[in-house]
Amino acid sequence: MNYIDTIENRTKEYFEILEPQFPLWLNEYINTKELLKQQYISVTCGTIYSQLFENKFFYSSLDHSIAVALIVWHFTHDKKQTLAGLFHDIATPAFKHCIDFLNGDYIKQESTEDLTSKIIENSVEIMELLKRDKIKLEEVDNYHIYPIADNDTPKLSADRLEYSLSNALLAYGTINDIEVIKRIYNDLEIGKDEEQIDELSFKTETIAEEFVEITSKLSIMYREDKTRYSMQLIADIIKKMNEEGLITKKDLYELQEKEVIDIIKKSKYKKVFEQWQNAKEIKISRQEPRDVYFVHHGAKVRYINPLVSGKRISEVSEVAKNLIEENLKYKMDNYVFLDFDII
């Protein structure tokens, strides 16, 4: 059975917007063992498991990767670029960017990407498919080389576009109407950035403004107090369990998130984890709290200042400029905590 046939109808509707004619050749790659593991990892970096967060729609790392591939295919019809998009998160472990927090990389959140090439190269299935299709490993193991697939913040790439649209519609549910997604997506084309490099670009100023409004809200959600706290808590629990020999880093690549949670709940960290799961509200302080586990650091700032007719939207729209500026003003200097002991 193809994985694509098992996904939720709402996700299918969304995929059909990204590419009405699904490229059937992609299925063989999607159905490889290494990619199928990604279906058990939520894009919300573990936050879906706590009542601190409202939306409970499970959109997986594999769903995200497929959607990125569909966007790249839609705009380029280039197999190599499309596969680079499909593979870009193949090295994602359970709880996604929480493991970057574990590695101390909470600002860039790229620490797990180094394994991408190794995982592809060690997959007999994927390497046989690439050989059959006359595609070299180095042509698909680094999506950063393809500007439509990936580029630097605050530009718009397939990856940045995808997680913005799917997070708004599905993972976080800040948009309920799929027609909004369709309107935004159908206004895009390939344009040229300031250095004449290809970049996804809007045709219409008002739609670009709408997109900036959506992504500015999401940007704060990605790094707000309860998100930073939750990701660091999961990271620290896993780190301590790793030090105690209860979880290995290999486990994070081989076990489903729910299986890792089962291990946590059989450990001395069960109470702390369940308190976080059942919490309804985070606490903040300007002063360092005593005798409780707290988090006090920033996180990666994700924001988008897209092109519209060859110019950054912030250059032509005061509305978009203000939205972006307000987003970037969000402070991350609070001490964030819940009322339980230091773990």
- The tally of helices reads 17
The main β sheet shows up as: 4 strands, mixed
Overall average pLDDT: 94
Which class of secondary structure composition applies to the elements?
alpha+beta
Question: Order of strands across the biggest sheet?
Answer: 1-2-5-6
Question: Regions with pLDDT < 50 over 5+ consecutive residues?
Answer: none
Which bin fits the share of residues in helices? 40-55%
In one word, what is the shape? globular
Describe the structure.
The longest helix has 19 residues, at 205-223. A hairpin with a 2-residue loop joins strand 5 and strand 6 (311-312). This protein has helices at residues 9-18, 26-30, 33-36, 61-76, 79-87, 98-102, 116-121, 124-132, 158-171, 178-185, 205-223, 225-243, 249-254, 257-264, 270-278, 313-316, 318-328, and strands at residues 188-192, 198-202, 283-285, 294-295, 307-308, 311-312, 335-337. The strands form two sheets. The chain has a four-stranded mixed β-sheet with strand order 1-2-5-6. Strands 3-7-4 form a three-stranded antiparallel β-sheet, with helices on one face. Helix 11 (205-223) packs parallel to helix 17. It has 343 residues and is of the alpha+beta class.
